[in-house]
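QA checklist item 7 of 12: single-chain prediction sanity check.
[x] sequence parsed
[x] length recorded as 309
[x] structure emitted
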Amino acid sequence: MRKRYKESEEILTQMALRNNRSIPEFRNMRNFVEEEDRKRGMSKKFTYFDLFRTPKMTMYTLILMYAWFVCSAVFYGLSLNIKNLAGDRYINNMIGGLVDIPAVLLVIYTANAPWCGRKRTLFSGMLLAGITLIGVLFLKLAEKSLTEVAFGQATVALAMTGKFGIAVSWSASYLIAAEIFPTLMRSIGSGACSIAARIGGIVAPQFVFLHEIWSPFPFIVFGSIAIISALTVIVLPETRGKPMPDAIPEWSWTSCKDSKDSKHSELPMSDIHNNKVDIDVLDDNHLEQSSTEILLKCDQGQTKEFFAV
């Protein structure tokens, strides 16, 4: 709010006169602006440290940050390593770009399918990338039994399949990261994951240089970190068709009153209704009070709990 009251009053007055309307009451406008400024000053500012409020939120944050790191490192690493593949590098580069199109289309279908969802899409893409890239190692061990052309074509096929899998994972990771963090910290959580992805992009060229030591070395590294990420993704919750969390958990590493109790509600009281507990209906004026005493009663009519919101 810039509080340019005089300028706004002049504009509104001209608008009212030209439209043959009564001039509005500017005192109410000023009171409204001052009230909004007061509410904004009282609102809590969240930081990256709030992503580590509880063990569960810390685990989700670290898993997603690692997944984004792997997606970025493997995706850009494979793109940069195309120059080391057999065949024409321009054709290989074109194929590497084309595989991203079916990957995105596949995510659009599987991420919204009841039998798959976000987590399985992310897990499957990571696992596919890891297995195919590790397969380059076994292909190298069997190089003597293959012709040079067959070995080169098989390596390109495995590398492109791995890039397809990591493209699927990266697209799915955007969805699950946007849906797993609470509303007030969603942008902070996505930003933390993006930072991890940028770090992955920084180290990706260094992994490619491992080709000078042994040609399958970059694929081994990419495949290993992808498989590790696939295993960690298993513990993430499925977010498809679920309401996005709103409640912010309290700082605790022992007993946390997190969004599980609130069922993704700003006011954690859905469990009260599920247990058939009577509660007085609160209007907006009551909710804005600094403390509102709420009396909860059991089914038997006895007082169960007395607390302040």
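[x] summary fact logged: The CA atoms of residues 125 and 165 lie 4 Å apart.
[ ] second reviewer sign-off
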